[in-house]
Amino acid sequence: MKRKIVVLLVCFVMALGMVPATIVSATTQAVSVSYQTHVQDIGWQGFVSDGAISGTSGQSKRLEGIEIQVFGDSNLDISYSTHVQDIGWQGFVSNGAMSGTAGQSKRLEAIKIQLTGTDASLYDVYYCVHAQNFGWLDWAKNGDPSGTASFGYRLEAIKIVLVPKGSAAPGSTVRAFVQAPPTVSYQTHVQDYGWQGLVTNGATSGTSGESKRLEGICISLCNMPISGSITYRTHVQDYGWMSWVSDGAMSGTSGQSKRLEAIEIKLTGDVANNYDIYYRVHAQNIGWMGWAKNGASAGTAGYGYRLEAIEIKLVPKGGAAPGTTAGAFVKYIAPDIITPTISLYVPATPFTYTSYSSTATITNMSYRIYNRYSWETNPSIEITFSGKCLSTNYGSTYSSFYLQLINSADQVVESILCIPPPLGAGQSWSEELEYFSDVAPGTYTIKLLEDN
To answer: pTM of the prediction?
Structure first.
């Protein structure tokens, strides 16, 4: 009987000896994560732990700072970095230090949290945030970003949990971080208004129906994850094409009241390999023109028409144009005008005529060839003649004469009746007469004939 009792005692002691050995070999201990946030209009809230909400919901209040610490494992540390309004990503801080700002009223927009220390490999840290206009996003993990970027949206609340390494996430991990898509932003300087606010990706900058000229423009790429730039130049009244500028610099003029007449925009670097840039303009006397692309001209040249508005859009490489591409740019090309050959014929005997009570003579006649309007194919001929009153009598005859344009076949192409003004004795005059309009290239004689 004694031997049985001894054996039982030995087995019991051995079993007890195995218990602490099992506990010591466990891969995780009872660890906890605690955190507090600094909230707009409220200040620091108290610490909460292990998945509880810190911050607010439904109050539209921004998080401005955060402190995080872990307990239960002296070999485990926690580090975190926040993306702050107007600052961007801050450096990592650890174990209860504040990340964010104090007294600057700057919103947190995103956060990264990671574990460090010798036991970091034993745990995963999960965290999710409540973001303005999105609500609760999904769970991020181990240093991945959580929140939004390039929207300017505030974080309003956060939850953080620690789990043993490889354990299931507390919820969905599909959409923990939202990055605004790459886009193009631009603003124009408008006659009488000055600089308008920035608009993006296809929105209209400028005016319509107000007859206001664009005088300058600035263009930038936003949220672009790859290298490259946007480069542009404008055609300016009295200057022509300006030099190329890039990435937000102004093209055009300031304080000179000069209209933009056309624009060219192109991409460079990796951006050019992955995107197309489309743009169209609203031009004086034309309205909205077609979409130009990747450095082609948009607008007009040679007409003196002002640009009044513009739309610019970034499109994935090879994507469809935003609209028609026909008629994006119109350039005036002057016709090839051949000047006619002209000779003047004035009678050898001074040409006299009686006008009211004056006897006068033509003493000189000249002409010039010109284009009244730039789009005319044929030139016009304008006649200038001079005369002098020789004497005065008391007759009442009213005289006139003809100017005739005669071609090389001796045919009268055009005839103009001229009635000079009455003169007193000794008076002279010189004036421009009606012109011969739209004269086709050829050989002509201008004759002066008395009206009998």
So the answer is: 0.56
